[in-house]
Amino acid sequence: MFIVARYELEYTAFMERDKIYMVKGLNDNIDHIIPYDELPHIAITSVIPFKGNLVYDGMLLGMPVRMGYDFDKMVDKEYDTMMKYYHL
Fold first, then answer.
1. How many whole angstroms separate alpha carbon 62 and alpha carbon 73?
2. Which run of H or E residues covers position 14?
3. How far apart are CA 57 and CA 5, in angstroms?
């Protein structure tokens, strides 16, 4: 289970505990699946290495839960301080 936290130019930030995985979509950008206005978004998927990048396994189960304004601020604060992983 991840928090889809932010869209960057070439990656989508998936937060899990104390790490952020910078994930790419293989066939389609993740922002075509989860709209910008639904971030942060709780999602269930698997992150795997593929050709030097991290990708998700193609299955992305979203959780239709909104946490509120304070949750958004908390995710933004954590995002700025956590280590980001581009490959495993």
1. 20
2. strand 12-16
3. 18
The helix/strand count (H/E) of the chain reads as: 1, 8
- Token digits for 34? 């989860």
CA 78 → CA 16, 49, 59, 85, distances in Å? 11, 24, 26, 15
Taking the model in full, what pTM does it have? 0.83
Q: Which residues in the chain land under pLDDT 70?
A: 64-66, 68-69
CA distance 86 to 50: 11
24 lies in which domain range?
Answer: 2-85
The number of domains in the chain is 1
